[in-house]
Amino acid sequence: MRTRPLKVALLGCGTVGSEVARIMTTQRDDLAQRIGAPVELAGVAVRRPGRPRPGIAPELLTTDAEELAARPDIDVVIEVIGGIEPSRTLILKAFEAGASVVTANKALLAADGATLHAAAAKAGADLYYEAAVAGAIPLIRPMRESLAGDKVNRVLGIMNGTTNFILDRMDSTGAGFQEALDEATALGYAEADPTADIEGFDAAAKAAILAGIAFHTRVTADEVYREGITEVSAADIAGAKKMGCVVKLLAICERSADGESVTARVHPAMIPRSHPLGGVREAYNAVFVEADAAGRLMFYGPGAGGAPTASAVLGDLVAVCRNLVNGGRGPGESAYTELPVSPMGSVTTRYYVSLDVEDRAGVLAQVATVFAEHGVSVDTVNQRGHDGEASLVVVTHRATDAALSATVEALRRLTSVRGVASLMRVE
Amino acid sequence: MRTRPLKVALLGCGTVGSEVARIMTTQRDDLAQRIGAPVELAGVAVRRPGRPRPGIAPELLTTDAEELAARPDIDVVIEVIGGIEPSRTLILKAFEAGASVVTANKALLAADGATLHAAAAKAGADLYYEAAVAGAIPLIRPMRESLAGDKVNRVLGIMNGTTNFILDRMDSTGAGFQEALDEATALGYAEADPTADIEGFDAAAKAAILAGIAFHTRVTADEVYREGITEVSAADIAGAKKMGCVVKLLAICERSADGESVTARVHPAMIPRSHPLGGVREAYNAVFVEADAAGRLMFYGPGAGGAPTASAVLGDLVAVCRNLVNGGRGPGESAYTELPVSPMGSVTTRYYVSLDVEDRAGVLAQVATVFAEHGVSVDTVNQRGHDGEASLVVVTHRATDAALSATVEALRRLTSVRGVASLMRVE
Ligand SMILES: NC(=O)c1ccc[n+]([C@@H]2O[C@H](COP(=O)([O-])OP(=O)(O)OC[C@H]3O[C@@H](n4cnc5c(N)ncnc54)[C@H](OP(=O)(O)O)[C@@H]3O)[C@@H](O)[C@H]2O)c1
Ligand SMILES: NC(=O)c1ccc[n+]([C@@H]2O[C@H](COP(=O)([O-])OP(=O)(O)OC[C@H]3O[C@@H](n4cnc5c(N)ncnc54)[C@H](OP(=O)(O)O)[C@@H]3O)[C@@H](O)[C@H]2O)c1
What we know:
Two copies of one chain form a homodimer.
Chain A: E1 6-11, H1 15-26, H2 28-35, E2 39-45, E3 61-62, H3 65-69, E4 76-79, H4 87-96, E5 100-103, H5 106-123, E6 127-128, H6 140-146, E7 152-158, H7 161-173, H8 177-186, H9 195-198, H10 201-215, E8 225-226, H11 234-242, E9 245-255, E10 262-272, E11 284-291, E12 295-302, H12 306-326, E13 348-358, H13 363-373, E14 378-386, E15 389-396, E16 399-400, H14 401-413, E17 417-426
Parallel strand pairs in A: 1-2, 1-4, 2-3, 4-5, 5-6, 8-10, 10-17
Antiparallel strand pairs in A: 7-9, 7-11, 9-10, 11-12, 13-15, 13-16, 13-17, 14-15
Helix pairs in contact in A: 1-12, 4-5, 5-10, 7-8, 13-14
Bound molecules: NADP nicotinamide-adenine-dinucleotide phosphate (2 copies).
């Protein structure tokens, strides 16, 4: 065992950072055994140094994150501030100073991962980010390393705990979106400003990161098609229920059939209740990975929270420290395929369309003609009439998203169609 | 990219080895990109060189595995022969010659992993074995690396596909054990000699490997308590059904409550049908890992088969080759806690006991007294009488396995007890 301790700078000491600091203390001896050298917290950067920070020696605290990140004696910088700036500048400073970096920052990685990877490569340092996707669930490492000899074709999952909690409540209690969001906020599952979660930005960042790793290409958050859950209504949930389905916010990354491009998207979708993802309750996450040789793998666990996310950060810390002690480097960016990201219109999906129509002969034929004219083939139709009004529920076969949305536009223009009551993709 | 290829020796070219060779060919360019150097199959050792081996150049074949393993130009040896010998000798020869080793050999690792790890450490070489547990499911790497900063308390899962297939058939068709085994054999899910699977040896080897990694101590297969599924009857399955349960062959590794010892065991158990493991059908595997900070994680996928297992071998091959190209080493054996393995008697579990008893007053009191005398508290009792005979189904609370088995012995000695119709642990 080497005796000189490895020095760690912690940037940020909030939900995740405070747990990282706690575990570094409580697990100190185990970490030393597993790394082959002691690790020591050498500084903690925060915004408000006056707040109580139980377990953190006050002399470690600083508000000058930049000075700490660039300190020449620091071996590893852990960035758990979040957001694009100042996090990016801090990480680049750390690499310039020769440190390795562990981060949980999905927003930054999805916006500008290439810059970070390039800086790590130039510095000959490590960049690890297991905590950026699905909290404690090991997913980045299995995909970057365990599946490195396989060909991944699809990644599909529930990657945001807040929205899953909300949709689960809507499903189990019949509540509307706003009511379920209020409950999530009260219970601490949603932040004061829930935009990143409910509008799908958080899941889209994760989808970008996973698509890049899965297909060995570069995907940024703005290339991910994104729809949040704010438009999901109690009627959508009830419609799903009638079909034996639940509504989930899915993130889906796929290699195209010809292998020449990839797609990444985040949107609510109906899935069968019997599907393993259908049973994912509350704020849990679950991700399927489909690969040529491995087949279908599923990873499940708590996707967020201070302690679970810190567990992932600590695993990365051990890996980075082991590399510093033994030599060697973790895998860098792998983007050699340079596959382009196709737009949403080219994705093939299925649609569930619930229409309010006039209850008279010929309407079904009109509606069916619109589907046919757009080359969309219909899987099932259910019609129910009452008092001159009828509702018509159509589930399509797979077609391009472009054809499906053109179909819905055309349906809206039919005079016999009073309105589109519910519209959702089906996976 | 380095241009001199890394040379790989493949020992064994059966179910797994032939898939490894196939993927090394079809994925040649991707593997080179991911490793940073080309990899080349330099030799393939088999027992019967005359068999057709599609896709393998005949000049690569040899029956002299020992010569191949020790060849000085070989960088990595992949051992997929299986069994203790000659595999152990071959792996040790490979390390002596300075090669790194990837193996899928759970039997050898569980019997004598310490010798292999010591040889790897002495040679300064890598030993990777993701494929040894749960086929394609990344489990060894997440536990050795992703959870390296956490404290694992429990690993529980279905780790043998053959027995899960058999139990699933018994559950869904009402078939007896032998009938379900015959079907598994006919469909290729069970080997000609199914002993290793149905007697629990295979799962016990995996439990030993996982317990060692989870608790950073050394556990061998003979320290794992083991019961197979040959005694599981249609009556057991029916009894489980009545309670809303299914019978699964579980492997369970636990840290004791005081943290001073560990246990590892493999036995059939009833679990609620609604438990995520209750829904694992056919030959799939699923493993729960519970850790202090991470919480409860689940990993699910195909636990065996040529291609899935080869996927895991290839992931290890990429890791080992990357280490050779960049310097560095994978994690070695971590057994610093030296926690002892406690015997089964000290494990606390729950029992399901179905008794055939005389249908007369006082019998229930007699039975209840036996439980009480052994300090075993009863959770539920169900009695049903018919024609002077009655059946009594008791489910206990948690007690030590020793107390529970002493209770059952005492029940068998009661004259009012005609027999024990079914006896199973409940998890
Ligand atoms: N929370 C989760 O469940 C979770 C899960 C996965 C990933 N993540 C990621 O982990 C990262 C951190 O999340 P979090 O939930 O821990 O955030 P948080 O609770 O808001 O904590 C942020 C921390 O950064 C500090 N900080 C902010 N601006 C700073 C600046 N300019 N200089 C120095 N310190 C600054 C804050 O200081 P003060 O304490 O003084 O305010 C606070 O300690 C984010 O990238 C997030 O996406 C979080
Ligand atoms: N099959 C699975 O699904 C699976 C899953 C996980 C792990 N594993 C593990 O993977 C390993 C291989 O399993 P497998 O199913 O591929 O076995 P297998 O089909 O029986 O293949 C064994 C191979 O080893 C060769 N061989 C046997 N003795 C040899 C010797 N003395 N010298 C040279 N070659 C010899 C055989 O040669 P011939 O071809 O000439 O007979 C055959 O090619 C085992 O450790 C097993 O536990 C298997």
